[in-house]
Amino acid sequence: MNVEEAIAILDTFLEQRLNNLQEVVFRKAWEGQTYQEMAEGAGYDANYVKDVGSKLWKLLSQALEEEVTKSNFRSVLRRRAERAKLDQQSARKQELGVSSENRGNGGFPQVARIQEIRESPLPNPDFIETPGGPVPLNSFFYIERTPIEEQTYTEISKPGSLIRIRAPRQMGKTSLMYRILTYARQTGDLHTVQISFQLADSQVFTSLDKFLRWFCANVSRQLNIEPRLDDFWDEDIGSKVSCTLYFQEYLLQQIASPVVLALDEVNRIFEYPDISRDFLPLLRSWYEEAADVLEIWQKLRLIVVHATEAYIPLDINQSPFNVGLSIRLPEFNLEQVQDLAVRHGLDWAKGELGAKQLTPLISMIGGHPYLVRLALYHLGRGDVTLDQLLQEAPTIAGIYSNYLRRHLANLQEHPKLAEALKRVVTTSASVQLEAITAYKLESMGLVKLEGNQAISSCELYRLYFREQLG
Q1: pTM summary value
Q2: How far apart, in whole angstroms, are the C-alpha atoms of residue 233 and residue 230?
């Protein structure tokens, strides 16, 4: 879909067309421009353009009867276009069916209708979202893992709360974080700030002082508060105290409403022990200040998101990862996989028979969200058959080759882990592993622990790593 098609869709929902400036903001937002860039190009004040944009998204939200924002409006309109095409195809099929009844079972329209159904297992396979990265807000393919969403929504509503979301890579951590932030914005007068440490330049991590100044400046700008680091930074009292005072006596004082601070890809910090040893306990101290009923710190609510592949050599009493609400994202169960398969247009996955047909797939890949999404994406598009997918899955020709290669490269950098996993995948029974090794392999998602015994998480890992490590 291009911007002209998007505007045409809007015209069918809006009572009157967008005015000139609204259309400029819409077109530039479609191109990915910031409000500042729009203002410079159009010759307007940036705050005025931002206000026009805010009112535009509210207008579209009312017209489309769902939340529309600068970050999700493209996906909303694409889904509306998809829905319109589905309705057109449904109407066309009904017309063909009526015509065939009038002409008899041997009539041409009935033949055309059968061919259409056979040739297109999905009404619109081109609209299946490509898996990889966070699942967009309002996506048709997001699967809730009840009661996790509800638990996090309840927790983020509490003053001074801290939510820790942890799981191996591509399990849906950031997707859940986005939904918590959206809930916070919709249901309460809350500011939200999102910081991904994956976006930080390497030089940011050269010292704790540089890192904390970058951190404070980033939060300030997202809150639209002028950074005043030099007014609070004092090398005599140290970076951690300076950072704490900056939040306590400046940032949290400047805002009337609580702020939800979401920290994504925190595992990036684990690569820099000198920083993680100080920064993570600092977060914990802020949480404890709120728990001690220091009112100003109750305005800060934290979301900490990290992958579990990294083993953290921290004192358990200094880490923030044993306080607050801990969320360990589980794999999808059979019912959730079946639901997602049907959403991908795979009608053969419906009912008890469908569940039985999905069983070999789940046996192969478990319920890992990304592996499931990738399989259903290719099946829904008709790229492969289920039998072909299962046969090629653990090979370098399969759809999981890149994903498996990343794990293999990680193992090759840690020979002890590779040797331990080799024992697991080449043994028919469960294997007892040294505690720390077992913990690391489980954190990577490669093994499941049954008491002190380890087994391969799924058949995909067992077959692939038995070949590669053997």
Answers
A1: 0.72
A2: 5
